[in-house]
Specification:
The structure holds two protein chains of two kinds. Chain A has six helices and twelve strands. Chain A is an alpha/beta fold. Chain A has one domain: 3-Layer(aba) Sandwich (Rossmann fold). The termini of chain A are close together. In chain B, strands 1-4-5-6-7-10-11-12 form an eight-stranded parallel β-barrel, surrounded by seven helices. The chains are: A alpha/beta, B alpha/beta.
């Protein structure tokens, strides 16, 4: 059973529809104890970072305990940003802090028509792939490292809608460029996060959800 | 690089897709779920459902239509037409809409834009602007194009952004259904005035019209209905053409 964490940010309908289509048994736990019984946790979210305050100390403890106990966790959009230490969007609201770094407002580039919010389909790339490959004089990698993006071709397109984003750190398994590179997908042990919406990203998105569900066993 | 989006619009009345010319002369174009399935296979980036009658009976039919379409595709789905209150928006979201498009209601009660942006996030709130050329400017019309709103389109789009809209869906009433090409001047004027994405609509007739509105019109997305419904132009063919023209698209 997968626990879908509802903290009142936007709606869960589209994530529920995708999980139903994939034949997944899921619940929306009413209290933190529900996290302990789940094979995997999904923290979805659209909207404002401050909405995550609904996940108070008992929720944070339950989610943290489950992850330390080996339960895979997938954060989507604001749910991914929450895995970091915090966000410029709500500086006083702490993130879960499983990953280091803080989320920042994308700056865009209005002179070149690069608008914020970043809305639409954009490409996933292995982080720093081009620069590293050039420095090492080797071809750019042909696949993503880690489990979450397994089976996706570099430059696969996914659907984004956000204004804030996490930095490209060691946990980043795919970056996307919107005037500047940011972390599009992160993975460290059993902690996964995607800035985009796999439930709205067609076949590529369903592949990513399947990969996460496989990690949940 | 962020790609330019191709959006298929389905004008729905009583659960069936219909299409008119310059907001008149409706004819039937098929079943929404079946069309959505075809568009998804062809590589459409988003789907918009516009309820064009929005009577009480059609409102119930609309919820069933949204559910049927959302069941077929895992793509962003926008619902518009007759959304006049927070309750209407909630019903659309509950049925499976990711975004709602406000038109008449946004002009009548602009605070609804802010209310919905706070509840669902700006990304879920599209303000639809139906505009008609007048003199050197563009006038806004409401009530399915029947009523002059006495507002300038560029100025209204700016206000909608300030109130929390996440995108502008800009329809040229002069070009709607004519297949004479998008109104690139209208689109560029609005796109330059706001910092949120602008979806151009009205007038798509050929492949070159899309290239035009993405370059001269500076649109972030282009929406069409009839040329996709009757399979005159497949989405896949359109995207291959745009890529050859150097316009970034998702293939």
């Amino acid at each position: 059973m997968i626990a879908l964490i509802d903290y009142g940010a936007g709606n869960l309908t589209s994530v529920k529809k995708a999980l139903t289509a994939l034949g997944v048994d899921f619940r929306v736990p009413r209290d933190p104890a529900g996290c302990g019984r789940a094979a995997g946790l999904i923290v979805p979210g659209v909207g404002h970072f401050s909405a995550t305050t609904a996940l108070d100390a008992p929720w944070r403890e339950a989610i943290g305990d489950a992850v330390r106990g080996g339960t895979p966790l997938l954060g989507i959009c604001v749910g991914m940003q929450w895995l970091f230490e915090g966000s410029e969007e709500a500086p006083d609201v702490p993130g879960l802090g499983l990953l280091s770094g803080r989320c920042r407002l994308l700056r865009g580039d209005s002179a070149r028509g690069v608008k914020v919010p970043h809305v639409g389909w954009n490409a996933l790339e292995p982080p720093n792939a081009a620069a590293e490959a050039a420095a090492l004089q080797v071809p750019a990698p042909e696949r993503f490292r880690g489990r979450l993006l397994s089976g996706l071709a570099p430059a696969a397109h996914v659907y984004f809608t956000h204004s804030f984003a996490a930095p490209v750190t060691a946990a980043c398994v795919a970056s996307t460029t919107h005037a500047e590179p940011f972390a599009a997908a992160v993975e460290r042990d059993r902690v996964f996060g995607v800035q985009f919406h796999p439930e709205k990203s067609g076949e590529a998105g369903l592949t990513i959800l399947r990969n996460f569900l496989e990690a949940c066993g | 690089m962020l790609t330019k989006r191709i959006i298929a619009c389905m004008d729905v009345r009583d659960g069936q897709v219909v299409k008119g010319v310059q907001f008149q002369q409706l004819r039937h174009a098929g079943d929404p779920a079946a069309l959505a399935r075809r568009y998804n296979t062809e590589g459409i980036d988003e789907v918009v459902i516009l309820d064009i009658t929005a009577t009480l009976e059609s409102r119930r039919a609309l919820a069933r239509t949204i559910e049927a379409v959302a069941h077929e595709i895992f793509l962003p789905l926008t619902v518009g037409g007759g959304i006049g209150s927070e309750e209407d928006a909630a019903a659309a979201v509950e049925a499976g809409a990711d975004k709602v498009s406000l038109n008449t209601a946004a002009l009548r009660s602009p605070e609804l834009i802010t209310t919905l942006a706070r509840r669902y996030g700006s990304q879920a709130v599209i303000v639809a602007v139906d505009a008609k050329r007048r003199g050197n400017g563009f006038a806004v019309y409401v009530r399915s194009g029947t009523t002059d709103a006495a507002r300038d389109a560029v100025e209204w789009a700016r206000e909608a952004e300030a109130r929390g809209a996440g995108e502008i869906l800009l329809t040229s009433m002069d070009r709607d259904g004519t297949r004479a090409g998008f109104d690139c001047e209208l689109t560029a004027a609005v796109s330059d005035a706001v910092n949120i994405p602008v979806i151009a609509s009205g007038g798509a007739g050929g492949l070159e019209h899309f290239a035009d509105v993405f370059t001269r019109g500076r649109a972030d997305a282009a929406l069409a209905a009839s040329i996709f419904h009757y399979a005159d132009t497949s989405v896949a063919e359109l995207k291959r053409y745009l890529r050859r023209e150097g316009i970034p698209v998702r293939l």
